[in-house]
Design brief:
single chain, alpha/beta, Nucleotidyltransferase, domain 5, five-stranded mixed β-sheet, 6 helices, globular
Length: 226
């Protein structure tokens, strides 16, 4: 199987071509908080060229669906849907939280891992994984202090994500500290590609995993009548 993976959920614009027999054929990541829409298409073209792969040779498209930036998610998901439609190949959506945890679980699946993403205003998106990568706490939005208490209840877990350091700083006094804190501004695109190849829910609609409503809301005021 050969696939194209895309990530624009957080502070990176990234793409990779992955082959289940040969591994990652090409990948590129540009760190950015804005400008994903302008950067993504040229970046995908470079990666496809470096992998010497045509879109017709792909078997599926994988994309991160969140949690993450509302604007960034829309860019990546729209691109994945477009590629899937143009090639008549399936697209699969992947959790950003799971993508953060994947390499740690692969290295030692006995660990408890807490993935944390900054949701701003002292809130984080959180998911807790147990032995074998089993989900102990499903993806959710919570206040930083509440999230730290949940994470501490998992024992002495490993923290990863762009809010890993925030979570460690808010760790409840008297609880066993985390075994490690891995502050990462975006997940590894190579691991997103691997998760995309392993995904079983092919055919499901690719849609954003927001976990909360957008900050921007329409005005309630009515326009004056003429």
């Amino acid at each position: 199987m050969r696939l194209l993976a895309i990530d624009t959920a957080l502070a990176a614009c990234a793409a990779a071509v992955y082959d289940t027999e040969a591994g990652v054929l090409a990948q590129e990541t540009e760190m950015m908080t804005r400008g994903h829409a302008e950067a993504l298409m040229p970046l995908v073209k470079r990666v496809m060229d470096h992998a010497n792969t045509s879109f017709a040779a792909l078997d599926r498209i994988a994309v991160t669906v969140g949690p993450g930036s509302f604007t960034g998610l829309r860019v990546g998901i729209a691109a994945a849907r477009g590629f899937a439609l143009a090639t008549n190949k399936p697209a699969v959506g992947l959790s950003t939280l799971a993508a953060y945890a994947a390499p740690i679980i692969d290295a030692d699946d006995s660990l408890r891992v807490v993935s944390a993403i900054d949701a701003r205003h002292d809130h984080v998106y959180l998911q807790i994984f147990g032995a074998g990568g089993r989900t102990l706490v499903a993806p959710r939005l919570g206040h930083l202090r509440d999230a730290a208490r949940r994470a501490a209840a998992a024992g002495s877990p490993r923290l990863v994500g762009n809010a890993a350091q925030m979570l460690a700083t808010a760790w409840p006094e008297g609880e066993r500290p985390p075994t490690a804190v891995e502050q990462r501004e975006a997940p590894d695109i190579g691991w997103i590609a691997r998760l995309g190849a392993a995904a079983q829910d092919i055919g499901m609609p690719v849609k954003p995993l927001y976990l909360r409503a957008p900050d921007a809301r329409p005005h309630d005021a009515q326009l004056p009548r003429r």
